[in-house]
């Protein structure tokens, strides 16, 4: 909303549209817990380790 006129602008409506899906996320279980329920503990651990691992090029060269 613009302070002077009290009317909504195009930017305001776009911002509200982008933020609306965030309201649906409240109360959801953490992603690790949801993954655990869907694919099990072992696959969840492997996936999370792979996602947060060190992926710099030099670390791959040391392992090879």
Report on the architecture of this protein.
This protein has helices at 10-25, 31-39, 41-52, 57-63. The protein is mainly α.
Descriptive keywords:
64 residues, mainly alpha, 0% strand, elongated
The total strand number stands at: 0
Main pleated sheet: none
Mean pLDDT: 75
- Succession of helices and strands: HHHH
Spatial separation of the terminal alpha carbons:
57 Å
The share of residues in helices is 55-70%
**Gyration radius, to the nearest Å?**
21 Å
Segments where pLDDT lies below 50 for 5+ residues? none
Subunit arrangement of the protein: single chain
Task: Specify the structural class.
Answer: mainly alpha
Percent strand:
under 5%
Instruction: Characterize the overall form.
Output: elongated
Number of helices: 4
Per-chain topology:
Layout: H1 10-25, H2 31-39, H3 41-52, H4 57-63
Nutshell version of this structure?
By secondary structure, the protein is an all-alpha fold. It has helices spanning 10-25, 31-39, 41-52, 57-63.
């Amino acid at each position: 909303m613009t302070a002077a006129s009290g009317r909504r602008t195009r930017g305001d409506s776009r911002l509200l549209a982008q933020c609306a899906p965030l309201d649906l996320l409240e109360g959801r279980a953490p992603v690790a817990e949801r993954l655990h329920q869907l694919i099990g503990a072992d696959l969840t651990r492997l996936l999370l380790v792979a996602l947060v691992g060190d992926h710099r090029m030099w670390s791959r060269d040391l392992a090879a």
